[in-house]
UniProtKB/TrEMBL annotation, chain A:
Gene: LOC120021618
Name of the protein in its database record: Kv channel-interacting protein 1-like isoform X4
Localization per record: Cell membrane
UniProt xrefs under InterPro entries: EF-hand-dom_pair, EF_Hand_1_Ca_BS, EF_hand_dom, Recoverin
Organism encoding this protein: Salvelinus namaycush
Molecular-function GO terms, alphabetical: calcium ion binding; potassium channel activity; potassium channel regulator activity; transmembrane transporter binding
From TrEMBL, chain B:
SMART domains xrefs: BTB
Top-level taxonomic group: Eukaryota
Keyword field: Ion channel, Ion transport, Membrane, Potassium, Potassium channel, Potassium transport, Signal, Transmembrane, Transmembrane helix, Transport, Voltage-gated channel
Family stated for the protein in its record: Belongs to the potassium channel family. D (Shal) (TC 1.A.1.2) subfamily. Kv4.1/KCND1 sub-subfamily.
Membrane topology (UniProt): Multi-pass membrane protein
Subcellular location: Membrane
Record bears the keyword Lipid metabolism: no
Signal peptide: 1-16
Protein name, per record: A-type voltage-gated potassium channel KCND1
Length: 227, 635
């Protein structure tokens, strides 16, 4: 309360002309921030019942229990926001900068697009990736690459994703990253996927091209028993 | 890694599916997770107090006793529980650390007992949460200082010198600790006496004595008894010089001694006399010579060797420098402001003493410190008004910093030796945390070079992968997948910069080039590269990448006899860039003499390629056993 008063006092028109606008803005922002903080602390999301989740996903009850215990321990409020997500992902990839990729990943998990991942979204995403059919996994991956959700992957989106992945590698790699390696990677990808040379990749093209790719199918199978 | 990260591991690995369409190579096989995924409750009995917790909770920190297989040593078969004969009260805090990820320091516990418990359970104290860190550090500092003071008091030079101490050592000891021998004590008091004599002589010199017969003017005693005084002065200076030279001779480190404050004081005390000796006796410089005599008063500072209190005062002033500086600065500001105001206020008055602004400085200082000599007094009304404001504000400006300085003195008096210890501990703490962080990021690189990422079958690597948790396996697999996706590998800074240097020579040939062209093109650059490695080996620094380089080079030596194995080895060990280095360096192995541990060279001829991984592993495992990789995990 006192801070709001102080901020508003500072915003009273005076000699410092251009500082006014900023301070007025920050006055309002300050108020919003306090509201946000109140909201965040009061929000405590509880997931649906165990039976419902078991029905909706491909996990057993025990697995869901273990997952939820870990999740709840980490996020007592029941939701993960993007900052926490980026922080977690950064710990897995300390060599480079994982924040961009974490951002896209967050959007892929956040199916309701409300800026936070609840336990249901988390578990459903995991279920698709670990226990889903091949088509479901490929659809999920397509959804990850399609940043603006328009049903097509164009070159810019792909370049963004590939750059984000290379950012995670960091600076010290062998062989060293020379030239525009992400761009070459994207070109190779498009050559493989974009059969009709339309410049964009649709979901069907993507799925068909992936299913033709022996190497990728083998790799997919390796990930079956990740959990 | 922290607890929470372990929870997210399955998620991160699942998300790696998103890389698959981009990957240009096949993914490596994931580590086999032999353990069942179901969780169980463990019973931990600590001196009779039974705790229960999920197994997963303890597995969060695999580098601690409870999180690793080390706890199996404490497993009691009959009662089906883990029994620890330790303090149950402390264990509560340890277990809370596993549960919440934050370590709290219980304020009522003894700091040393707490640290011992932490050490037993394999937890480093640096991860104490911020809420308790301040308290912990203060208590630890206090404790250490108390202990240090006790031991210092015990040993403080009272221990007898070894009988074969040189004259120099004995002399130095006599100087530093006068109470150790009677001779030293005598010397101590004699020098003290002469310092006093010298100072008193300087003072008395200026006192007016009765004039000599035949003259009316009063003479200062110094001129009346000039011979006596100069003799006294010479004697004192001789004794001081002798003392200084003796100290200089006896000092274990002459440079350090010459730079110390006491030695500077000594020099300044005797310098005027010698300068006076060499200076010619003409009128112009005699004025300067007189000024030099002022420096003789510095002899009084020599007393600080004899007085601990004086030394502490000096330290205090040094430590309070910022407050004193602030006082000085604010005073200067105020003085300038008020002097200017007073000057202009009194400008109109006839015959005013405020002749210039610098002249007004004197008035301002005298007024602000409430001295009020009265030699300069404002006449005009404006002057009087501003004068009164000046004296009022003077009280404030001076009174404000003074209590701060006083309280500082009290604090510093108690802490005058603790400033250094605090700094030392800070450095150590930062160094340990840095080491822990580096340990985590380098863990993957170490794992790679240990050959843990081979695409061979998983069972045949029991030696190398000892003590690696499932979490680490999975993490390394994840990083490996990223490498495969981007078709680049993680390295560390050293190798990266090295590769950049050799890059221009064209060392990194693509795998598609034939071996012969490789042989021809790369002998020279490889030899340069390998020579550089051999040079580094000679330096034998301790770092992860260099450790691995050492291993590689020992392998190169063993591979020399197998001249015909190249084509097979290249195909079997796919996607390992170490191969390129291996193949190249065989030619230079003869040139380099690398000290190979005899256990590493297999005597029999090398079998064909599928077993080469085996040899690689065996030799690595033996070097492994000699290495001590204790990973401290905290991110």
């Amino acid at each position: 309360m006192w801070e709001i008063l102080q901020d508003c006092w500072k915003s009273i028109p005076g000699e410092a002309g251009c500082e006014n606008a900023k301070s007025v803005q920050s006055c309002h922002q300050g108020k919003d921030k306090i509201d946000d903080e109140l909201e965040m602390t009061m929000v405590c999301h509880r997931p649906e019942g165990l039976e419902q989740l078991e029905a909706q996903t491909n996990f057993t009850k025990r697995e869901l229990q273990i997952l939820y215990r870990g999740f709840k321990n980490e996020c007592p409020s029941g939701v993960v926001n993007e900052e926490t997500f980026k922080h977690i992902y950064a710990q897995f990839f300390p060599h480079g900068d994982a924040s961009t990729y974490a951002h896209y990943l967050f959007n892929a998990f956040d199916t309701t697009n409300n800026g936070s991942i609840k336990f249901e979204e988390f578990v459903m995403g995991l279920s698709t990736l670990l226990r889903g059919t091949m088509r479901e996994k490929l659809e999920w991956t397509f959804h990850l690459y399609d940043i603006n959700n328009d049903g097509y992957i164009n070159r810019e989106e792909m370049t963004e994703i590939v750059r984000a992945i290379y950012d995670m590698m960091g600076k010290y790699t062998y062989p060293a990253l020379k030239g525009d390696v992400p761009k070459q990677h994207v070109d190779a990808f498009f050559q493989k996927m974009d059969k009709n040379k339309a410049g964009v990749v649709t979901l069907e093209e993507f799925i068909v091209a992936c299913q033709e790719d022996e190497m990728m199918m083998r790799s997919m199978q390796l990930f079956e028993n990740v959990m | 890694m922290a607890a929470g990260v372990a929870t997210w591991m399955p998620f991160a690995r699942a998300a790696a599916v998103g890389w698959l369409p981009l990957a240009q190579k096949t993914m490596p096989k994931p580590p086999v997770d032999k353990k069942s995924r179901s969780d169980e409750i463990l019973f931990v009995n600590v001196s009779g107090l039974r705790f229960q917790t999920w197994k997963n909770t303890l597995d969060r920190y695999p580098d601690t006793l409870l999180g690793s297989s080390e706890k199996e040593f404490f497993y009691n078969e009959e009662t089906q529980e883990y029994f620890f004969d330790r303090d149950p009260e402390m264990f509560r805090h340890i277990l809370n650390f596993f549960r919440t990820g934050k370590l709290h320091y219980p304020r009522h516990e003894c700091i040393q007992a707490f640290e011992e418990e932490l050490a037993f359970y394999g937890i480093i104290p640096e991860i104490i949460g911020d809420c308790c860190m301040e308290e912990y550090r203060d208590r630890k500092k206090e404790n250490q200082e108390r202990l240090a003071e006790d031991t210092e008091a015990e040993n403080a030079g009272d221990a007898p010198l070894p009988p074969d101490a040189t004259l120099r050592e004995r002399l130095w000891r006599a100087f530093e600790n006068p109470h150790t021998s009677t001779m030293a004590l005598v010397f101590y008091y004699v020098t003290g006496f002469f310092i006093a004599v010298s100072v008193i002589a300087n003072v008395v010199e200026t006192v007016p004595c009765r004039p000599i017969k035949g003259s009316i003017k009063d003479l200062p005693c110094g001129e009346k008894f000039s011979v006596a005084f100069s003799c006294l002065d010479t004697a004192c200076v001789l004794i001081f010089s002798f003392e200084y030279l003796m100290r200089l001779y006896a000092a274990p480190s002459r440079c350090d001694f010459a730079r110390s404050v006491m030695s500077v004081i000594d020099v300044v005390a005797i310098l005027p006399f010698y300068i006076g000796l060499v200076m010619p006796e003409n009128e112009e410089v005699s004025g300067a010579f007189v000024t030099l005599r002022v420096f003789r008063v510095f002899r009084i500072f020599k007393f600080s060797r004899h007085s601990q209190g004086l030394r502490i005062l000096g330290c205090t002033l040094q430590a309070c420098a910022s407050e004193l500086g602030f006082l000085l600065f604010s005073l200067t500001m105020a003085v300038i402001i008020f002097a200017t105001v007073m000057f202009y206020a009194e400008k109109g008055t006839k015959g005013t003493t405020f002749s210039s602004i610098p002249a007004s400085f004197w008035y301002t200082i005298v007024t602000m410190t409430t001295l009020g000599y009265g030699d300069m007094v404002p006449d005009s009304i404006a002057g009087k008004i501003f004068g009164s404001i000046c004296s009022l504000s003077g009280v404030l400006v001076i009174a404000l910093p003074v209590p701060v300085i006083v309280s500082n003195f009290a604090r510093i008096y108690h802490q005058n030796q603790r400033a250094d210890k605090m700094r030392a501990q800070q450095k150590v703490r930062q160094a340990r945390i840095r080491m822990a962080k580096k340990g985590a990021t380098n863990a993957f690189l170490q794992h790679k070079e240990d050959g843990g990422l081979q695409d061979g079958d998983g069972d045949s690597t029991p030696f190398c992968v000892k003590n690696r948790s499932a979490f680490e396996h999975q993490h390394h697999h994840l990083l490996h997948c990223l490498e495969k996706t981007t078709n680049h590998e993680f390295t560390d800074e050293v190798t990266y910069s090295e590769v950049c240097v050799t890059d221009s020579v064209g060392f990194r040939t693509s795998r598609s080039t034939s071996l012969s062209s490789q042989q021809g093109a790369t002998t020279t650059c490889c030899s340069r590269r390998a020579k550089r490695r051999a040079f580094r080996l000679a330096n034998s620094t301790v770092s992860v990448s260099r450790g691995s380089v050492q291993e590689l080079d020992t392998l190169h030596v063993t591979k020399t006899p197998a001249g015909t194995q190249y084509p097979q080895s290249r195909s079997s060990l796919n996607a390992r860039t170490e191969d390129l280095k291996l193949n190249c360096d065989d030619y230079t192995a003869a040139i380099i003499s690398i000290p190979t541990p005899p256990a590493n060279t297999p005597d029999e001829s090398l079998p064909n390629s599928p077993a080469i991984p085996g040899i690689l592993r065996n030799s690595r495992s033996s070097t492994f056993n000699t290495q001590d990789t204790v990973k401290i995990s905290s991110l």
